[in-house]
Design brief:
The complex is a heterodimer of chains A (256) and B (447). Chain A has seven helices and eight strands, in the order E-H-E-E-H-H-H-E-E-H-E-E-E-H-H. With 256 residues, chain A is α/β, with parallel strands linked by helices. Chain A has a five-stranded mixed sheet with strand order 4-5-6-7-8, covered by helices on one side. Chain B has 18 helices and ten strands. In chain B, strand 5, helix 5 and strand 6 form a beta-alpha-beta unit. The chains are: A alpha/beta (256), B alpha/beta (447). Chains A and B meet through helix 4, strand 4, helix 5, helix 6 and helix 7 of A and helix 2, strand 1, strand 2, helix 3 and helix 13 of B. The complex binds iron/sulfur cluster.
Chain lengths: 256, 447
């Protein structure tokens, strides 16, 4: 039997458009896969087709998900799609398909013995963890014009979640969060709704810190140093709790 | 003199002294309350708490943990700030604390403030200063982030009440598990003085909850609950005594958390034990594990320890240790064992137990599934069956299982390289054997 493979853009909208397409064409979920890049192994007996991202279609799917899977179920699905793993798209698609056949679609997410659900839960969990890590590990620097500026390089595409969190927390601040790896910027203007920009015209050299910034950074470094109990020193534990990959962006590690 | 130093000392120097003096307080969580932003003021709070960094000792940095001052009129033997110590002293003004908190919070260094203090002048004067700082931070700086503040024993209850309306969490440190311990090491403190603000806060929280059911917008009093801390290993109490004290604090005072702080010998005092192996970290770790079992797994202190067995097993965690002593209750079948029983299986945690219960409604679970669900099979396999079958043919025998479990090297948070069996038994030797007969009565009646 032939397999259909839909190839789409690696974004929430991209994958949800592919889900829409699969439904529209009445493909059988068992024999259909979604791939977010072309790099996967080409398979024999598979028909490949490209799906152009369509925000109207993806918005429709999102509405359905919200209605049928509930807020929480929908959140799980979207967060799994923020994963950097290839396997996410097919697993999410099949989980959605299995769920929609049930009276209570969100209950499909509790089927921990189902391979697709397992994948979705696993991915959601790792995205959530990285997001939660960055809630804490992200650092803002104050620029001369008063804007708070942050650079991160997360594995998963968590910038939107961070922007949501920080705009709730710092409603009256201008801030920019830059996912360096993806060239994705979240921009928040005081008192307004945040938005994302991909590869904006941005001059890294123009970033100038305010005069107070260096003083504040020094105070924090001093604090972190003083708050540690020498008799308990344990760098292995520290490394376990705060993986090295976050440190280049953290004030207290001074880029080390 | 004191004011002179305040004027001339830089903020950095003050911060250095006053965070250094605060570091032995182990509580640094920012958990217990969900408070969304209001679209105007700075700050929100997440019930799960957020860790912002980890210091070189591997502990979480979540709050700006500082003392208002390290001046102190008291002379607790274990404390660096005690009156009789000749150490540099400093004091923040409430404004300085607010400025620091805000500039750290904006840059996402911290989740909020953890403010404590030495006793300056009198308990009332100290509490008044803490109150003023919080008042300023909440009303002038409009800060909505997390605040944990100490209630000073002996301070005017009205001041404590008013402070509690500005804070998220309050704590009064029990310091030492027994009244005897307190008497020898903290001559200025009295068990009664510590327990009465604790009781006051508890009652305040209850009254506030009742009020909130009637007036939804009533101001909230200590919404993230109260906590306390005990120093472990400065006095000769057994693990059983300590855990029983913790249990009654949870039951009778409805505390959110009890923290255990391995004793660090900062003063050379003949009343203080010399701990050759350093702070008793393994002991502290076991107590945290057991504390977890009390709070989330439905265990009671008496199930885990007893007069006959007053201290935790050095080699096995408290849950494995319990299971091995209760083999008659195992194996349990994951397909139908009830939730409470699943929780008691080594290798099954709160989350995996819940997932098992959810997943088995629609599927027969296999060992492979359990692994994916998050069950630690190498520990659980002795105690469970799937559809009536064991994972491997293993014997349900104490010695056999113990040997196998020990073979799986336990992961300890302070394990620098590897702790060998020998080193572990060395730890064991460092345990105090407590004089149980006499103490029993006093520590059990904490009410
Ligand atoms: S009251 Fe005791 S523990 Fe607290 S600061 Fe003073 S000497 Fe230290």
């Amino acid at each position: 039997m032939e397999e259909n493979i839909l190839i789409c853009e690696d974004s929430l909208e991209g994958v949800l458009t592919a889900v829409y397409t699969a439904y529209e064409k009445r493909y059988s979920p068992e024999k259909t896969g979604i791939q977010v890049s072309e790099e996967g192994n080409l398979r024999l007996f598979a028909v490949y087709e490209y799906v152009e991202t369509d925000t109207e279609k993806s918005a429709k799917v999102l509405r359905t998900l919200r209605r049928r899977f509930g807020e929480e179920g929908c959140y799980t699905i979207c967060q799994a799609l923020a994963s950097a793993e290839e396997e996410k798209a097919t697993a999410v698609y099949r989980t959605i398909a299995k769920g929609l056949r049930l009276q209570k679609p969100e209950s499909v997410l509790l089927r921990y013995a189902d391979a697709d659900v397992q994948t979705v839960q696993k991915l959601k969990c790792s995205v959530w963890h990285e997001m939660h890590h960055l809630f804490g590990f992200l650092r803002f620097r104050e620029l001369q014009n008063g804007i708070l500026f942050s650079e991160i390089s997360p594995k998963n595409n968590v910038t939107a979640y961070l922007a949501e969190h920080f705009s709730d927390r710092l409603p009256r601040e201008h801030f920019v969060i830059c996912d360096c790896g993806r060239g994705l910027f979240a921009v928040h203007e005081a008192g307004k709704r945040w938005f994302l920009v991909q590869n904006p015209d941005f001059d890294r050299e123009a970033v100038r810190e305010s005069d107070e910034e260096a003083v504040c950074q020094e105070l924090f470094r001093h604090f972190c140093h003083k708050i540690s109990v020498e008799a308990r020193e344990n760098k292995t534990l520290q490394r376990g709790m705060l993986p090295l990959r976050f440190r280049p962006y953290m004030t207290e590690f001074d880029g080390k | 003199m004191e004011y002179l130093s305040r004027e001339t000392m830089s903020i950095k120097e003050k911060l250095g002294i006053l965070s250094d003096a605060a570091k032995y307080d182990v509580a640094c969580t920012s958990s217990g309350i969900d408070r969304g932003g209001n679209g105007r003021d700075m700050g929100n709070a997440l019930a799960s708490g957020i860790c912002h960094s980890f210091s070189a000792d591997g502990r979480c940095i979540s709050l700006l943990k500082i003392l208002l001052t390290n001046e102190c009129i008291f002379d607790c033997k274990y404390c660096l700030n005690r009156r009789s110590n000749d150490v540099p002293r400093a004091a923040f003004t409430p404004e300085e604390i607010c400025e620091l908190t805000i500039s750290f919070y904006r840059r996402n260094y911290i989740e909020g403030l953890f403010l404590s203090s030495g006793i300056i002048g009198s308990p009332d004067m100290t509490m008044e200063l803490l109150y003023r700082t919080l008042y300023l931070l909440r009303t002038q700086y409009h800060f909505r982030g997390y605040i944990h503040v100490k209630a000073i024993p002996g301070a005017d209850p009205l001041l404590i009440q008013r402070t509690g309306l500005l804070a998220d969490r309050m704590s009064v440190n029990l310091e030492l598990p027994t009244a005897e311990g307190l008497r020898t090491l903290a001559p200025n403190k009295h068990r009664k003085n510590i327990l009465s603000p604790m009781r006051q806060i508890q009652n305040g929280i209850t009254a506030n909850q009742n009020e909130l059911t009637v007036y939804r917008h009533a101001p909230r009093f200590v919404p993230a609950g109260q906590s306390t801390q005990m120093i472990i290993g400065a006095t000769p109490e057994s693990d059983y005594q300590i855990l029983s004290v913790a249990e009654s604090l949870y039951r009778k005072f409805e505390l959110k958390r009890v923290f255990y702080s391995a004793f660090v010998r900062v003063n050379d005092d003949k009343e203080l034990p010399a701990l050759i192996g350093g702070p008793p970290l393994l002991r502290e770790h076991r107590l945290y594990q057991a504390d977890w079992l009390l709070r989330y797994y439905g265990f009671s202190a008496d199930e885990l320890l007893s007069e006959k067995k007053p201290n935790f097993n050095i080699l096995l965690d408290p849950k494995c240790d319990w299971a091995l002593a209760h083999l008659e209750q195992f194996p349990v079948d994951v397909q139908n064992a009830d939730y409470q029983l699943l929780l008691r299986v080594p290798g099954i945690g709160v989350k995996s137990a819940l997932r098992i219960v959810q997943a088995r409604r629609t599927a027969r679970l296999t060992f492979e599934d359990l692994k994916k669900i998050g069950v630690v099979l190498k520990r659980a396999l002795y105690f469970i069956t799937c559809s009536g079958r064991q994972m491997y043919p293993v014997r349900l025998e104490e010695d056999y299982i113990t040997r196998n479990l020990l073979y799986e090297k336990q992961r300890l948070p302070f394990d620098k390289g590897q702790i060998t069996y020998k080193q572990l038994s060395l730890f064991d030797d460092l345990h105090f054997s407590p004089p149980q007969e006499k103490e029993e009565a006093s520590w059990k009646k904490i009410s």
